[in-house]
Amino acid sequence: MTQTILFDPLVPWPVIWAAAAVTLAALLLGLWKGLSGWALRALAALVLLAALSGPVHQSEDRAPLEDIVIVAEDQTASQQLRDRPEQMARARSQLAAALAERPGTEVRWVSVPDGEGDEGTRLMAAVAQALADEPRARVAGVIALSDGQVHDADQAVSLPAPMHLLLTGREDDWDRRLIVKNAPGFAIIGEPVKLTLRIEDQGAVPAQGGFADLDVSVAGGPPQRFTLPVGVDFELPMVLKHGGRNVIQFNVPEEPGELTARNNQALVQINGVRDRLRVLLVSGEPHAGGRTWRNLLKSDSAVDLVHFTILRPPEKQDGVPVEELSLIAFPTRELFLEKIEDFDLIIFDRYKRRGILPAVYLDNVANYAMGGGAVLVAAGPDFASADSIYRSPLSLILPAEPSARVLEEAFRPEVTDLGKQHPVTSGLEGAADWGRWLRQIELRTPEGHVLMSGAGERPLLVLNRVGEGRVALLASDHAWLWSRGYEGGGPQLELLRRLAHWMMKEPELEEEALWAEAAGQRMRILRRTLAGQVGPVTVTAPDGSTVELELRQTAPGQWETRYTGPEPGLYRLEEGKETTVVGLGPAAPKEFEETIATGSVLAPVLEPLRGGVLRLEDGMPSLRSVRAGRPASGRGWIGLTPREAYETLSVSQGPLLPGWLALLLASFFILAGWLREGRR
Questions:
Q1: Is the Cα dihedral 247, 248, 253, 254 positive or negative?
Q2: Are residues 102 and 623 in contact, defined by beta-carbon separation less than 8 angstroms?
Q3: Where are the transmembrane segments (predicted)?
């Protein structure tokens, strides 16, 4: 029961203060005049002023409330290292027992898991959430069980009580980590790109030689070992061999006594892109399709085009003196012998043998294709003639032989059943609405893949692999009709773009391919093949365990499935003869960037709260009660501030000076003062 005196004035306080001032002035006047009853009249005035102020007697029935102690348990990945789980379990048991012995105390246990999206340890956010759920007037303190590596320490919250950190780990812990300081997301194929690496030791590092080994593996291949100095930035040049995703794995062998090897490796995924596409276009004679080819290639700023056009064949005799011709001699020897390897693609558009390009040049083109180059032939009537380039060294690489028949009839190009599965022509919808072509060269004995057919279902587009290179043959010179919109046109731009990229071995257009798209710890596995079926894909996790997954068909020639990896790292995928690698999770998880237990990160938060940092390896500290504003930690102890909060059960009020009593007392003192003055 609590007794309190309150005031409930009958008139505004300014009126009461004014009456008090008048009373004081009258009292001083009485003293100056020497009136004998001034004291009794002053008492009467005080009684009246007290009655006007309305004194009230209040009685409260209160029930004390227990103090609340918030204990935040760090359950992130770095807390699973070495003997930290045992330290946490022992500390939790001892702390729970100590808090249970403290009278009038409730405990709120808060678990701090790994932050979403590699955010690390969000301990302060967890504490803020716990405080939001509790009345702040009851919070006696916050105790954090953690290694101190908190990643949101800059988001300090306003606490009404001290906060302490009980530190896991040991003072003699040490760790070695690999840091990738600079890794671009994109790089140009064939050009060196520099990655900045650093091997760094932390904690109580034993005496070492100052050097460490580094293994580098590209696309899951055999690793190459380098020896690097510890604590020094090192620039490692890399050259990407192919386009698309290139997965590079770095690994530093684990040293004895090291805290963890989880931060000894890093995955870097770099997308390989081509700087510029170098194309050599050889036109046998001017025609409408030649301009279409030139405009198409020149419209792409990423294409460097060299166009070789025969405007005046040797057999042309028009009487114009050679010295008066304005044509510039074309450097054929330089292009076809010395610099042919500089081109990514060579296109022959309606070219036939005229003696301008000797057989040795064409033989060099065939060798260029066999060695990994790309050759595209857009055939016209000349391809079926006696001067056809098929009757040259190029016959070794061309995927079909002309029958010497030219079909001068309208037909609508169609995608074959195989073409519906091939990435070059799959998804080219609307074949029924495509415009017709008016001429086709008949082919026989095609080799490779026939993706499009023309008149009478004869081969129209044939693709083939020769040696290390690729060759395509388009048996018509009327593809330009699509670009002119003839009878609605067709997807010429998309078809030729895909065709060029397939010939340059872009990974996304491989007809036999296995790849995966990663998003966090999940991957989408995709398989493309021209075979009628596929088997299960074998996934090998970073720890060596394997799992087989069945693929489901999603489109002609395409299968896929989804998988969630149990841990970050490099995963190997295999189906039949196709293999690939993919990295899941962050390249360097934030939880393992800093693994040595420390109180320095939370020091700016604990200092204004008068909290302390104590190591659990020194034993569980004792609990003490301290007043607000006093130091709350010391050697072997931590303090909690009793809040003395309560809950009011009932309240009763009554006037301290009843009106009749105030009137009686005031009348008594006024009468006594009058009698006193009258007797004088």
A1: negative
A2: yes
A3: 12-31, 38-56, 657-675
